[in-house]
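Subgroup meeting minutes
Present: P.N., E.W., G.H.
Scribe: E.W.

1. P.N. recapped why we're keeping a running log of single-chain structure predictions: easier to compare across weeks, and new members can see raw inputs and outputs side by side.
2. G.H. added today's entry (505 aa).
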Amino acid sequence: MINVTQELQVLVVISASLPATLSWLLLRKIAKHCPASPAFKRFIRTASNSDRRVATDEMPAQDERTSLLNGNINASSSDNTWSSVFARSSTPGEQSDNPVIRFSAACFTVAKITLFSNYVNILLVFVPLGIVAGATGWDPVTVFALNFFAIMPLAAVLSFATEEISMKLGETLGGLMNATFGNAVELIVCIVALRNGEIRIVQSSMLGSILSNVLLVLGCCFVAGGIHNTRTGTVQGIEQRFNSTAAGTMSSLLILASASLIIPATLYTVIAGSSDNTEETMLWLSRGTAIILLILYILYLAFQLRTHANLFNAEHEAGTETDEEHNPEEPQMSPWAATIVLILTTIAVAFCAEYLVDSIDALVAKVHVSKTFVGLILLPIVGNAAEHVTAIVVALKDKMDLAMGVAVGSSMQIALLVTPFLVVLGWIIGQPMTLHFETFETVVFFLSVLVVSYVIADGKSNYLEGAMLLGLYFIIALAFLVYPDDASSVPEGVKLAVRSMLKWD
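Output recorded in log:
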């Protein structure tokens, strides 16, 4: 294998990503000023006429094609040709009699809909670069960076495809699918890390995803929505409102999840050094707790989607209806197309996650950061980038219930579904995944959940509360930046203090 220098790798990355990115941004602008060639226009007109024949069962009039055949093409026809090709929801040729043209047009339409579904999809150019870098053995820092940026848009595509499928499944099954695949990227990355025995990466990534959602994402929503709402409001001091019942239920479940981490950490502190089966005891406690948390999450889904769905509907609670209820959003692609997009994206995420996790050890050694910082701060950004953008957009539109569902709801899924599932999966594949997090991490998690619970308890938000959440997140990030990986043992003084409080003999 040819060894490629790091300078050459950077040059290849720039030369490959810049044209691909700029070409897509400039394509539509170029199309407005560059008339299409007669051959290309003839192909588009032929496909369009084929569509028209299928729709009306009539042959097109001969004079409709005269100007094309004679080359008399004006500026307006050129604009119509390009706009028909780059229209988001359709492509000429989808109703063609030719199966090749019909299939190609359908694939092109699905690609357009998927690409325009989220702003972060411009980063999709990093997907092939990340896979090539990992497969050919580039510098680990380069491999990590490329796959780091590659997974961000893939997470957005996964979320979009899941939403498209759930629209056809009904309210209950659709909600269940959103709950299952809502954190698919975090789950895939952690499964890869768990298979490789990176237990610390898995634990810190789960904790970091929760903190990122409830502090960073929710804080940005409160700040952006609060400032925008105050600026456009007619009165000073106006606040945004959300469903306090749903927020209270989710915060209560998060407190329960934090208790499920505090109990193993406290028990470990008590029995460490006094029992020969400490690790086995923690495994059995974690596995039993994980099963209980999974059962509670299933009960929560039944509570939210079936028995008490009205409590989670802000409009129902207020006795009003919105335009979205009268005109529900329609899917933009067929369920089969969305399923194919979901499968292909999942495969791409698996490849990028594999190379991302494999490069962490070399990254830690070269950049001199701890694995805990990588898992708790960096990796959650990968899975939450798309959710971050979505939550801020809906907060600016004053749809705070949706923003709360994206931020707090996602955190609750990780705490009650993804983390317990990984414990059970580790049990199955023989990896000692437990709910015993380090004492410092457990305290940070509990304090964060406590602050968030107080902030959202009144069902109102403003930019100051958002700034508080962001400030707490950055303080935690600084703390874990200087947190060493070997700071895992509990001091003897702490053990003695805990034992004395519990009257341990």
